[in-house]
């Protein structure tokens, strides 16, 4: 009977987590001042909204403000601001962030942020709660930033891969879905496609223990990568006229920016700066009316104790954390929003630690009851 109730309880937990995550993010979205990049992305969204209003669909092939980032996020923001953007986009884009159009765009991020926490709660309800309450994640998934969408699709890419690896039926559809979500992740923001390397690493580690062997792995992984690339291209119409040229230009921008941009050089962040961001609470930066409480330091602390259990249960999440952290340590640009690459697996590790704690308490209670009898 209990086994039949577990899926229902997981769904209820996920719905509760979605509600919590939505409320915490919408509270932040309603009270946060404009962030540095929000005006840039809102201005880009207004250009896409204009194309939609004019019915200029061919314009999507030639339009991508700040082309160093794929347009998918900005297109979604553009659809969201359609009802109000004409009167709100006049003047300073940073001020427009606090207009009805700005809040409509922020609502897109809030929705994807809440869904990400809810999906993680299906795996581990405590992990979903931690991701819902993590203040740095709340901040950057409540603003007109490029973090919320790829955070959501990268988690789905991993979960679909896990379902494929566990032989869930229909198996082939799971790895195809994983590839598609990975492609959409790259189309949201390049950085989050790091999760693909974690999946491949886990796949390689698992292959010697499977019946199919390396030949099957190479064929399947090649098809997986091809589907992922196709999904990326389909979701990125700006690349269609010149895929190689425009993609090379975008990647070259990031390489040059990370080594020579004035703001990067002046920031002077040390190599270990990602660790500092991980133990920093966004509530330290903003008034008390933005965040109800902060668990960021607690989540990081608990995650350390849950890593071993998480490795045993599903290794790919630890590899995701390791690959993401290794890249952030090496990459010269170290903005705080980049740690959202890590917060889903980090929250899952913390959730595993809570399960260890509950299991220990339950065992002690059972032992005490038996001893008293």
Summarize the structure.
The chain is mostly helical and 373 residues long. The chain has helices at 2-31, 38-54, 72-80, 85-88, 93-96, 100-123, 125-133, 135-140, 148-165, 171-188, 195-206, 213-234, 243-260, 262-267, 273-278, 296-313, 315-330, 343-372.
Task: Chart the SSEs and their pairings.
Elements: H1 2-31, H2 38-54, H3 72-80, H4 85-88, H5 93-96, H6 100-123, H7 125-133, H8 135-140, H9 148-165, H10 171-188, H11 195-206, H12 213-234, H13 243-260, H14 262-267, H15 273-278, H16 296-313, H17 315-330, H18 343-372
Helix pairs in contact: 1-6, 1-7, 2-3, 3-6, 6-7, 6-9, 7-18, 9-10, 9-11, 10-12, 11-17, 16-17, 16-18, 17-18
Task: Give an overview in words.
This protein has 373 residues and is an all-alpha fold. The chain has helices at residues 2-31, 38-54, 72-80, 85-88, 93-96, 100-123, 125-133, 135-140, 148-165, 171-188, 195-206, 213-234, 243-260, 262-267, 273-278, 296-313, 315-330, 343-372. The mean pLDDT is 91.
Strand content: under 5%
Helical content class: over 70%
Number of domains: 1
Mean pLDDT: 91
The helix-strand sequence is HHHHHHHHHHHHHHHHHH
Give the biggest beta sheet: none
Uncertain stretches of 5 or more adjacent residues: none
Shape category: globular
Work out the number of β strands: 0
Rg estimate, integer Å: 22 Å
| Terminal CA distance | 27 Å
The count of helical stretches stands at: 18
